[in-house]
Amino acid sequence: MCIAFPPVQFCLQALIAVIILPVVGFQVYAQSSGDSLAHPAKEVSTFPSPSTAATPTNDAASVSVNTAMLGADQTHYVLSSGDVLEISVFGAPDLSQKAAINSAGNIYMPLINNVHVGGMHVEDAQGALENAYFDKGILKSPHVSIVVTNYASGVVLMGEIARPGIYPIVGAGRLFDIFAEAGGPSASAGQIVTIKHKDNTEPQTVVLSNDPVKSLSANVPVQQGDTIIISKAGVVYIVGEVYSPSGFLMDEKDRYTVMKLVAMARGTTKLAKTSKARIVRRTSDGQMEIPVPLDKILASKAPDMPVQSNDILFIPTNKGKQAAARSADIAIGLATGLTMIAASHSY
Fold first, then answer.
1. How far apart are the two ends of the chain, measured CA to CA in Å?
2. Rounded to two decimals, what is the model's pTM?
3. Nearest 5°: phi and psi at 181?
C-alpha cells in the first residue's frame, strides 16, 4: 500500500484511522447502551387502557352515540304499539337488540322477559328496563338507551303543507315544531289551521299571522293522534281591461271587494267598458255571471260588491272606444306620413 502512495505521512494517517475508528464505534455503542439502560423505553401494554376498557368496542357503542343525539328529540314522544325500538345495554352487548312493542304495550328483552313500555316516554321506558335488570340481579349498574327507529303513531298533517304525512311528536310538542319537520306550509296555504284532537270532538281553529307577536299565540300544543289540516288560501282573479291582470291570494281576515281588486290590478285602462263588468262565479249549480256596475261604483253612485274565493272579475273592452282609438291611430299615422311627404318636397 505504501508503495502505491510514496508519502510516508499519508500511510501513517491511514494506519491511525484504521486503529481509531473501531474504538470510537465501540464507545458510541456503549454510550447508547448505557443510555438505554439508564432510561429504558416505556413498555407498551397489550391490555387496554382504563378509558378504552370502559368504552364498549362493539356495535352497541355506535348505537349509544346516536341515542345520545336523538334522545333529546324523542323526549316527548309517547311509545305505543307498533313502534320499533333500538335498545342498547351498556356493558352487555348480548342484551342489546331491536324490539317491537306488541299490542299489549310490551317488549321482550333477554333474561327479563316482557317489560311494559306502552304509554311511556322514551326516558321512562329506559328507566323501566334498567330497574328490571337491577331488580332481578342481572346487572349491578344497568344503563339502557332507547332510540325509536320506526314510529307507529304521531300527528297527521294534511292540506297545504310541503310534505304531508304522519310525524312523531318531537321537541316541545308544539304546532310550529311539526311544521318545521314537514317543511312548513306551502306557498298556497291559507291562514286557517284546523286541529282535530284525538280526545276532543270539537276541532280547534288556529289563525296564522305574519305578525311575530300574534304568531306566538298560534303555536299551540299538539299531541299524538291529532289531525292537523292547513287550509288553502282562496284566489280571486281580475282579467280584461286592467293594467295588471292577475290572481291574488285572499287573506281570510280581510274582505275582498270589486274596488279592492281593481286597485290591486292598478286600475282600468282607457278602453274599459266599466258598465258591463261582471263576476264569473262557480257554484254547485254550475257557472253563473253576476253583473257589476263598475262605472257607478267608481263614481260612488253604487255600493261596492264583495267577491268570493275563485271569483273572476271580468272587465270587457268598449268596442266604440277601441274603434275610436284605432281611428285616432290611423289619423295620427296619416298625419305623420303627410308631414314627412311635405317635408321631402320642401327641399
1. 122
2. 0.51
3. -65, -35
